[in-house]
Design a protein that fits this description.
With 232 residues, the chain is an alpha/beta fold. The radius of gyration is 17 Å and the shape is globular. It has a single domain, classed as P-loop containing nucleotide triphosphate hydrolases (Rossmann fold), CATH 3.40.50. 34% of the residues lie in helices and 29% in strands. Strand 7, helix 6 and strand 8 form a beta-alpha-beta unit. The chain contains seven helices and ten strands. The model has no long low-confidence stretch (mean pLDDT 90).
Length: 232
């Protein structure tokens, strides 16, 4: 594995939260390397640090100590503005709650990160149409979220996460609010789109069966990575 293959690189990353008079050690010296195109499942009990890990990697939060590099750039302590700009172009997010904007149609929701980033509306429109077609929603792109099923809304969220063609996709319990059939469809879609676009995916899940189906698995406990499965 060469340095250029490594998309996510964490070195001795700590994250400490102050909750009233107590300090909560959410991450305790985490080291992690993930290369381009890898799909990694992140498991562990509630409070083990899974979501904090994703937030630090996704520049939604800054580490208390240590170094975070994404696509070769140190993002450990960017300003809010620089972090927002970098995140918009580099990281796609899919959460358990899809966070779609209810007043906008599916295609408008998908285009939103690109419009915020100052992209060409016509180019974004073409790409959003293609993405919605690729997730099976070509005929539903002008529907608002309330007119879509839970599984369809999450597919819109996946398309939105990919509109900027990010090298990294972070998913936090993306199937947690879905029934089994819809969840399996969203899972398969994530993996297929990731493979097709060579996107590096980290997916947090409580579903151990889902995690076992991923090529690589990270297990967390008390803010540490206690197991990494998969060959490099």
């Amino acid at each position: 594995m060469t340095a250029s293959d490594v998309v996510i690189h964490l070195e001795k990353v700590h994250k400490v939260y102050q909750v009233e008079s107590q300090k909560v050690l959410a991450l305790r010296g985490v080291d992690l390397k993930v290369r381009r195109g890898q799909v990694v499942g992140v498991t562990g009990r509630s409070g083990s640090g899974k979501s904090t890990l994703l937030h630090v990697i996704g520049t939604l939060d800054t580490p208390s100590a240590g170094k975070v590099q994404l696509v070769g750039e140190d993002v450990s302590h960017l300003s809010d503005q620089a972090s927002s700009s970098f995140r918009n172009k580099t990281v796609g997010f899919v959460f358990q709650s899809n966070n779609l904007l209810p007043e906008f149609t599916a295609i408008e929701n998908v285009m939103m990160p690109g419009l915020i980033g100052g992209g060409s509306k016509s180019a974004l429109l073409d790409r959003a149409r293609g993405l919605l077609s690729s997730v099976g929603l070509g005929a539903r792109m002008h529907h608002r979220p309330a007119e879509l099923s839970g599984g369809e809304q999450q597919r819109v969220a996946i398309a939105r996460a990919l509109i900027m063609e990010p090298p990294i996709l972070l998913a936090d319990e993306p199937t947690g609010n879905l029934d089994t059939k819809s969840g399996e469809m969203v899972e398969a879609l994530l993996f297929e789109l990731g493979r097709r676009n060579q996107v590096t995916i980290l997916l947090v899940t409580h579903d151990l069966e889902l995690a076992k189906r991923m090529p690589y698995q990270v297990d967390m406990e008390d803010g540490n990575i206690v197991h990494f499965g998969g060959s490099w």
